[in-house]
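Entry for the shared binder. Reason: the reviewer on the internal report wants the predicted structure included alongside the sequence.
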Amino acid sequence: MQVLSSLNVGQLAVIDQINVSNQKKIKLLGLGINTGASISILRNRRGDMVIAMGNARISVGKTLASLIKVREL
């Protein structure tokens, strides 16, 4: 398992664990980010990231990306 921020552009992954407060988890759930979700990396500037989930594009900040653990596909 690795953190989201360590993935490169074009990689596919599944979210395994999200280590944030309940308030932030609720916000992420509203965006569709939850454990078990399949994502692909569109941009990673070793900080801010853009991920794709289906047709949705979501921007994730550096701090949040380092708290999301993923499993590469």
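Summary line for the report: Strands lie at 2-3, 12-18, 38-44, 49-53, 56-60, 68-72.
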